[in-house]
Amino acid sequence: MKKWILAAAISIAISGCAHDVKTSSSLPQGVTLIETVGVSDAVSIPYKKYLLENGLTVILHQDNSDPLVHVDVTYHVGSAREVEGRSGFAHLFEHMMFQGSQHVGDEQHFKVVTEAGGTLNGTTNTDRTNYFETVPSNQLEKMLWLESDRMGFLLPALTSEKFEVQRETVKNERAQRIDNQPYGRLNERFNQAMFPEGHPYSWPVIGWPEDLERATVDDVRNFFKRWYGPNNATLTIGGDFDEMQTLAMVNKYFGELARGPEVKADPKTPVTLDETRYISMEDKVHLPLIYMGFPTVYARHEDEAALDLLANILGGGKTSLLYKNLVKDGFAVQASVGHPCQELSCRLTLYALANPASGTDLAKLEQKINDSIAEFEQRGVTDDDLQKVKVQFEADTIYGMQSVKGKVSTLAYNQTFFDNPNMVASDLARYASVTKEDVMRVFKTYIKDKPMVVMSVVPEGAKQLIAKEDNFTPVTQSVADVAVTGTENVRQITSSFDRTVMPKAGAAPVLKVPKLWNASLANGIEVMGTENHETPTVELLIYLDGGNRLPEIEKAGVASLTASMLNESSQKRTTEELAGALEMLGSSISFGATSTQSYIQVSSLTENLTPTLAILQEKLFSPGFVEADFERLKQQEIQGLQHQESDPNYLARRAFSGLLFGEDTHFSVQASGSVATVSALTLDDVKQFYQTQYKAGNAQVVLVSDLPQQQVMSELSVLEKWQGSANKAEALPTFPTLAGGTIYVIDKPGAAQSVIKIGKRALPYDATGEYFKSFLMNYPLGGAFNSRINLNLREDKGYTYGARTGFNGNDVIGRFEATASVRTDVTAESVTEFVNEIKRFQAEGMTDKELAFMRSSISQGKALEYETPYQKAGFMRMIQRYQLADDFTEQQADIVATISKDELNQLAKAQLDLSSMIMVIVGDKTVISPKLEALGYPIKEIK
Questions:
Q1: Given CB 3.0 to 4.6 Å as the disulfide criterion, which of 156, 472, 514, 937 pairs with 102?
Q2: Per DSSP, what are the bridge partners of residue 388?
Q3: pLDDT exceeds cutoff 90 at 211
Q4: C-alpha to C-alpha distance for 594 and 546, rounded to whole angstroms
Q5: Is 2 a residue whose pLDDT tops 80?
Q6: What is the DSSP string of 181-214?
Q7: Burial class (CB in 10 A: 0-12, 13-18, 19+), 259
Q8: What is the DSSP letter of 793?
């Protein structure tokens, strides 16, 4: 365990590493070894760092624990590199990078990676854009081919047509993630007030709508020329690979690419406010929200760690001041404090959602927050404050190393922004060295009596609830004459080899399926486990059959509320005392409930497993069930449910489930219940449900640990006092007859998008029968990014940010569902495309190419399924819950390899009958109704 423990001498961890620049004769020509960081006694990530002649930084981290690799290309460009009036380019360009390049066809990036059994994505923030893939290890060369082609040869394939489609896709993304979401515009409005005019953080990453309209294809071309050179990028590869072979491939594909314009870091100019700025916004929300922020420093500033600790003390959980003064006392249903940091600037933010039971006047909440800040100054910093944050930071660092992706992301981040991948140990040392005096000093320097931004978000028509009248109005930003400069000397190279030839995959890797063990506790509880030595951690999950379907329908939500109560006080200690004890261990214990089961999730460092299980025993066997906790949690649950009423996705899910399974069954009500059912619950209902649900006979355990079976079972003996027999399974209710072909409309005036759901009741889950085979059948229709439906509605038409179809089932019920959030003006057109695609697929089935794609993608993707402890636990739970054979994945692999196209197409005919499907649409009825009526389907409105 010593290598994982934060020792006093952790700061010397770097001293044993080689940092000399070295050009070895064994390295490919043009590749220079910059440094080697090996395994040390401190928490660290071993790697080798190289530099190509064109300036590309290459970082290699070897981890052969699973047969996979994670490839990350991070470009040091985000929205902060944009200029006024030209926002959204960085994010828009991220979309363009998936549209094919000179030697990679249109839509091929997703197809190639998915067919290889991999996953992929790209993300953009203010300061960087990254592109990443996780694939079986034999597919590495193919990933390097893809990434190098878009780095060096994107422009010849960048057309006006692709640009227009992706601009529409970005508009859809903005509508779905921002304009159609409660509080969705909060951050962009807040940043306008926080940062001075022209500051690169004053506009949203996704861009202002008018700026997106202003963009041209030439602007996008120039953005690529300016920022996407290899000298502004870091290529990080982690996983199971041969180092020298990988370096040779990297040099082959990336080494000849031309160096781009030189890139300099933007200045880290301190952000200051001359006075407190008040702004407000009316929104389609239920609960008023106050959001406050102080400008502070920038990422890795010497005061960042102390400010992080300050934020944790003020509002970092159940031991914080804001929780005590706002949530515990009933003034807010949520309250939190954070210190998000970016390359150029950080800010300390505080927010609270008003609790209507105590009034919704945000001026009172602002005062409560300010009183809590003042209380901190009087209270000061305790030893426990420092210790719990330091322990939690170390634990989070270790948990972050459970996946190759997590380690690669850390290396890439540190290299991109600080030119040093090796900062894990020094980060731990930073937090370990923070003193009480440091926290008080940064409080006085950046927070006490300092101007801030205070934003009120209130329901439409409730302007009287804002904290204070607005005293700040953002200026109309100027529009830069030129979107991008500095591209004059960029040249397009001609490759020295034929890049149109896609590399072949290497030999298929050997799957490393977890070796499982089975045992039983003395009281009969089944335990399934596996030994995993990648990190010194324990992941323990206890599942209890029942959940929301256990109580009568009138008490829907009691499973969730009982779980929330078990997350509170015990008979021995308060909620705050238990939370503090777990924080000191770097552990977490979480009770929860779903529609079919309750569960307990325990995460612990191995060295702290014994005291963590002692706390579990206390919470599970002697819950406090305090009346004040119950009333507070019940009120929070009710407010959360009322808040969901403003979410169109929730409205669509609720209506769809109600139509499929009947309003009076458990299957139509989510685990948290409804406002009506939760409002009627009492503490006695919770106590009764606890007695019915939390019995040993209902429980099963899965566990992933670095400890041997015998030792783990000894630790789990604390559960052997648990008694009680299993509950009997209830008979299924009678479900309603569906009015197939009917459109049900829920009116949401002013909605930026329409949410569409089309489907029917379908098969319950099975691992090797018709359900599994239907999953295979659906894959080319709507189960992958490059499926027919998504390519049609997103890539070809620009109607949506994403569209999909799928089968979803549990042990007793299932459904087929096609869904998308689409532009309001093309709601009817989207329904038509869904219908046409499903009809065509049902009638004609999949093609030979689609069959081959499905087989390749699903069979090779198995290599990615067992990497993290949580993935291993999920695998075991499937075996346990559905009583599957330990080798069920091998049986699935046989089916994937041998099932015929005819059998799959017959399933399509049987399962995709549109005449038996209903359609639910949530949108602005006045806008969407005329075109919907023209489609000729019966239409009913749901109030």
A1: 156
A2: none
A3: yes
A4: 9
A5: no
A6: STTTTHHHHHHHHHS-TT-TTSS-TT--HHHHHH
A7: middle
A8: I
- pLDDT of 15 > 50? The answer is no
How far apart are the C-alpha atoms of 328 and 311, rounded to whole Å? 18
Query: What are the phi and psi torsion angles at 593 (to 5°)?
Result: -150, 145
- Please identify which residue in the block is written with the tokens 């590309």: 56
- What tokens appear for 823 in the block? 């532009």
Length of the chain: 943
Rounded-to-integer distance, Cα 908 and Cα 922, Å: 28
Rounded mean pLDDT of the chain?
A: 93
What pLDDT digit, counting tens, does each position of 847-864 carry? 999 999 999 999 999 888
Question: In angstroms, rounded to a whole number, what is the distance separating the alpha carbons of residues 409 and 863?
Answer: 20
Strands 526-531 and 743-747, bridge-based pairing: unpaired
Q: How confident is the model at residue 25 (pLDDT cuts 50, 70, 90)?
A: low
What is each CA distance from 142 to 501, 502, 856, in whole angstroms? 10, 7, 15
Residue 806: strand pairing partners: 817
What is the DSSP pairing of strand 233-239 with strand 57-62? Answer: parallel
Distance CA 427, CA 393 (A): 9
Give, as one character, the DSSP assignment of residue 432.
Answer: H
Strand order through the sheet with 453-459: 277-283, 453-459, 289-295, 347-354, 332-338
List the structure tokens of 643.
């808040």
Q: Which helix (H) or strand (E) holds 855?
A: helix 848-861
The whole-angstrom separation of Cα 805 and Cα 437 is 56
Residue 288, CA distances (Å) to 372, 453, 748 in order: 20, 17, 20
Give the whole-number percent of the chain exceeding pLDDT 90: 85
Neighbours of 201 (CB within 10 A): 22
Q: Which two tokens stand for residue 656?
A: 């769809």
pTM for the model stands at 0.91
User: Which residues, listed in sequence order, are joined to residue 529 by a DSSP beta bridge?
Assistant: 517, 703
Residue 357 has pLDDT above 50, yes or no: yes
From residue 389, alpha-carbon distances to 428, 436, 585, 894 in Å are 11, 12, 10, 49
CA 28, CA 247: separation in Å to the nearest integer? Answer: 7
CB 120 within 8 Å of CB 101: no
264 contact partners, CB below 8 Å, separation of at least 6: none
Helix (H) or strand (E) holding 820: strand 814-823
- Coil, helix or strand at residue 446: helix
